[in-house]
Amino acid sequence: MTKKWLVSMLGAAAMTVSAGALAQSPTTGFYIGTEIGNTDVSGADDDIGFKLLGGYRFHPNIAAEVGYGMLYDKSDVEVTGLEFVAVGFFPIANQFSILGKLGLANVEVDTRFGSEDKTELTWGLGVQFDVSRNLGLRAVWQRYETEDAVDYLAIGATWKF
Question: Is the whole-model pTM more than 0.85?
């Protein structure tokens, strides 16, 4: 009984891995991109935010990314972030992937009373559709774990070199 169970589990794992291998894009290298979306600060207030990013995809499923974003600018309060994240891609179709982000962000809050910055954890989930070999479109939700939780829901585009 245990032998059949083990063979079944190994077979299921092999099918899962091979389906991802068939669906993944073979491109690696540098990319740049931009995102625009809605930033929500602790559910109390929201604003339009944007982010510029660049990264290096050194494996079809793993990339390192740097981004700078103007997340919130309203009522004499400005929130910006500089982030360094690892991005994992899980291909589920020929040009379609689920992505996950995990890293650190230096979040700076400027008010008329002063400025404060802290390095915090950031993580997110999203999807990416590769329109062509170079152009990718993505939708991402990202959380910045600050004292007042900052959520960023955005759409964007990336260009691979």
Answer: no
